[in-house]
Design goal:
The structure is a homodimer of 361-residue chains. Chain A is of the alpha/beta class. Helices cover 23% and strands 24% of the residues of chain A. Chain A folds into 2 domains: 169 residues, Medium-chain alcohol dehydrogenases, catalytic domain (Quinone Oxidoreductase, Chain A, domain 1, Alpha-Beta Complex), CATH 3.90.180; 148 residues, Rossmann fold (3-Layer(aba) Sandwich), CATH 3.40.50. In chain A, strand 11, helix 6 and strand 12 form a beta-alpha-beta unit.
């Protein structure tokens, strides 16, 4: 089993951004990257990944050279390893994987991104890269540690936000059940729902995670989905029923939620970690959706990037004030990125909150 | 197996409404009624029903005595036979069943409903009844046969209308798949979708029904869900995918539809005939809903009665002009109402279009 470190974020503090000019000359740089070696059948193994070193070109006009500080691994990447058409492009065999990363500009031929600038990109799974400045977004590491922009202030947080408020239309005072509540998206969703005055029920797969849910995120009821029946837990936690289910798992927890949902209940279908490697049976009680007029709706966060300013307006000050927690689990070094990713897919995965791979500093 | 009659409607023609005053005196009347004898475990049998004769009271002020001409049997009634709370009230053991019926006023103590008036009510499963005039709706049998108000001009038609346009937001030119397309709701949905310029794919369980779908309803592609794989049929019928699925069955056809749906596709969850008696496994591919941002939404027609005028404005003239067909399958006599109902639940049921039990005239 993977060993983790709970740590102090990565790329935190503005002090390190003082290197402006340090690498102003154009430099050739080696970068190691992680490539898709083969497509998995069922559960992926380390043999699905390979490593390669490449020599980066000099940045051209309007481009920058960036050294990554930290990168994200996310469950949705499992789907991108499969063959066949999908609505997120598949990873290609022999090509580097992709994902969000925060890095520092170390050589620049674009005046808007001077050396030292911290930038968010989709160029994860590699130590460094050259890219057009227009593909990158500047992040403010004085407001929060850089890695928070992979987590609650980034795509992870936006996924929780969109699922709760845009898709499920969660309203103040309602009761919401969030599966995989101690994971990256789940822990953001638990907190946003609490901030909006909702009653929160969350599930997780280990005692450590339950403690985190109860003691740090202050959810109203937390249960281990591997101890006892989810349907019984929901009956106990919300005898009058739930209004919204934020679904990260599908499988038996979706089935339990369908029973617990009140008329006109909503399900934000965010993911299906229970079945990413091996398909799980569908809920046997989908007929509940007819009599109770339920709405089940899937979403992909990239359709909703325009909502990022609304999230940041609320979350940046809340994080600074200690009203939000961006809990992270760190793994160090690009070499261990495949392990960190595979761990996410394991039932009862060891990470609490966002899994971040630190690459430098 | 049940024997049917294809017939000429019931209560058709305005001539019969000339009996005004004929039964103006207050009369005591016997009525036979069908009661719930016991709750079914799995597939219901005839032993779940009992018959009783009751003496009706004289109508009080504001009440009328009505003799039913025809009554509806519908798959949703299976759910009302179960125990436990639901969002449509359950039938009660020892009490008469309920459902829509069209009847004629034969004694009246309400001036708005003179003797001879045809009225639609929820007092099906009985030959006659006394009820407050305010609970009844007058129907115009000069515009269409009375039984059409149980079918395409009634709750059946409204179910199709609401599912397609209000829930699934079907737009002109889109492709829609309708399971149980030759049934009461399905055959209305096929026709409304065609009238709105959509491409229609429909499934059914017998060759007679396929002929009806192809030759009378003019759907674009019809297939027998028991011959071959629904997923292959959908690939062939709509190689570019479908926009909407009108789901009357759940089960394997829902699973096939989830594969065929285009991004942002919609599923109107109307019923689950595949699993009314014995639960069927849920779709194993519900994860499709996430990547394709699908919306699956259940509905109950009684939430949408306010849309009836919009339906009638379009459907009454279309029916009169022969642009809509209200296909019916008739069973004669209250004694055979339980059989007619049970037949609806049988895979490959013999009825085409609306199953109507004729009670008089």
């Amino acid at each position: 089993m993977l060993k983790y470190r709970a740590g102090s974020g990565c790329g935190s503090g503005a002090a390190r951004s003082g290197g402006k000019g340090q690498y102003a000359g154009v430099v050739a740089t080696e970068s190691r990257e992680v490539r898709l070696a083969k497509r998995p059948q069922g559960e992926p193994g380390l043999d699905c990944f390979s490593f390669a070193s490449v020599t980066l070109p000099d940045p051209g006009q309007g481009e920058v050279l960036v050294r990554n500080l930290c990168m994200s691994v996310d469950p949705y990447m499992r789907g991108r390893m499969n063959e066949g058409k999908s609505y997120v492009p598949q990873f290609e065999i022999g090509k580097p994987l992709e994902g969000t990363a925060v890095g520092r500009v170390i050589a620049s031929r674009d005046e808007k991104l001077p050396v030292g600038t911290l930038v968010l990109s989709m160029y994860g799974w590699r130590d460094a890269y050259v890219a057009p400045a227009a593909h990158l977004r500047v992040v403010d590491a004085t407001a929060a540690p850089a890695s928070a922009y992979l987590g609650i202030l980034g795509v992870t947080g936006l996924t929780a936000w969109v699922g709760l408020f845009t898709i499920a239309k969660l309203k103040d005072g309602e009761t919401v059940f969030i599966s995989a509540g101690a994971g990256a998206v789940g822990s953001a969703a638990c907190q946003f729902a609490k901030m909006h005055g909702c009653r929160v029920i969350a599930s997780a797969g280990s005692e450590d995670k339950l403690l985190f849910l109860r003691n740090e995120l202050k959810v109203d009821y937390a249960f281990n989905y591997r101890n006892g029946d989810a349907r019984e837990h929901l009956s106990k936690a919300a005898p009058d029923g739930i209004h919204v289910y934020f679904d990260n798992t599908q499988g038996t927890q979706l089935e339990a939620a369908l029973y617990a949902l009140l008329p006109y209940g909503r399900v934000a279908m965010c993911g299906g970690i229970a079945g990413y490697n091996v398909p799980v049976p569908g809920p046997r009680n989908l007929i509940q959706a007819v009599g109770k007029r339920l709405r089940l709706e899937g979403f992909i966060v990239s359709d909703h990037f325009k909502e990022m300013p609304a999230l940041l307006a609320e979350a940046v000050p809340a994080l600074a004030a200690g009203k939000l927690i961006n809990r992270e689990t760190f793994v160090d070094g690009l070499d261990r990125a495949p392990e960190a990713f595979l761990e996410l897919l394991r039932p009862g995965a060891g990470n609490i909150g966002k899994m971040v791979v630190r690459l430098a500093e």
